[in-house]
Design a protein that fits this description.
Layout lengths: L12 E5 L4 E4 L23 E4 L4 E5 L19
Antiparallel strand pairs: 1-4, 2-3
Amino acid sequence: MSDDPIISQKGPYQVALEEGRAYLWCACGRSAKQPFCDGSHKGTSLLPFRFIAEGSGTFNLCGCKGTDDKPFCDGTHNML
């Protein structure tokens, strides 16, 4: 299995997050529960990105796995 992330979607996932709650963002692109981790990274050197939501609301999480602002979309998908 390759250690390169897979583009799961060429655009962000709009998701509702709850302030203070911890989340695991899928960094490998293999999860069936995008944009969150389901353990599909096992067998690679990639690990999910753990973050705590700083606020409640709808946020754009990266789907192309190329963001420099993990886990949030920074528009990198526009250059793919």
